[in-house]
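Message: Study each token:
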Amino acid sequence: EFAFRADARSGAVRLQASGVTNDVHALGDLDCDITLSAVGAGPARPLPEALARVRPLVAQGHVSKAGDAWTGADLHLRAGRGTSLAADVAFTGAPGRATPRRTLKATLRDAVIDVDDLSLLRGQTPPGEAPRPGVRADTRHALSSRALPLAGLREFDADVDLRAARFTGAGRGIAQTLRGHALLAGGVLRLQGLDIGVGDGHVTGSLRVDASKTPPELALDLAARGIRVDRLSSTLAANGALQGAVDGRADVKARGDSARALVAGASGSLTLALAGGASVSRRLDARLGLNGGEWLRTLLDKSARVPVQCAAVTLALDHGIATSRRFVFETPGTALAARGWLDLVDESLDLTLTPAHKKLALLALDKSIHAAGSWHDVKIALGPPGGAPPERCAP
């Protein structure tokens, strides 16, 4: 064995290492401390293009190699605005060779993920920033028909335990934390023990992606609890029309090689319900009930609220079309019946709500509320009443 010290640069990339090796001329077995950094605006070869966008970047830890097996202990990464992680990693394999099969085992002990840094990884500009050269603006768009890069899942096996991750950044939305254990073998990815902190609540469950089949298959079984409504919608947060927490469940299977194909091929069931203690503004209750007299009273007290006695919906999902199978919404003065569907592929809906008044309402309209069109530009109109009477809360 020989002791060595290395300090190499390539543009903005610098590699520093010190330790021992059994071959000073070729990449033999080694045991060393290493620091890799990319700082500044120069070229960042040989880093992958996506990773080179997230600067400054500093990775350091203890690395050892024995044959085709690499081990990284106490690895620490800091990248971009606020992304960091601490991990232990073991990798076996070599580029250009089928044997031994490439395998990855990693334990991510702690991670902070700045979502704005993820925008840069995808080649997009974080929200609120001027586009950088070679980076496209991050705009909302319809589901993509571009093939998902799932073929790579067949090329290696992996076991990744993510013990704790926190999301930060302006674009993080409602996501807060993430835990899970990912297993990849033979092109089948299983994400188990999933726990996503969302809107001050949690989404838990499992996800399975089978890329060994053509087209790939996806199955998810998720449960949500305690997700605050005001965190789901900035509009609701601003006007306080609906307050409370949502529980739910999704059991969905799909086949497809793109995001659009997966949604178009999705079937299963979705259930959402407001948890106890939810309320609506008296004005919203009056509008849903088409109750003109109650609406006039809200002009005198705009802060008044009405408890929601029960609210739940069950949707049957068939090839990307979600159809209402059960709907219940009831307050002390109003009960609603609903029928309709959501097209998850074309992002459109057709929904009819018919109110029933539980109290005498002299200025109420005997009409239904019809909402239709794109999610982004819903057209609302009044129509004739009809359909089954509202389902009532369980006694």
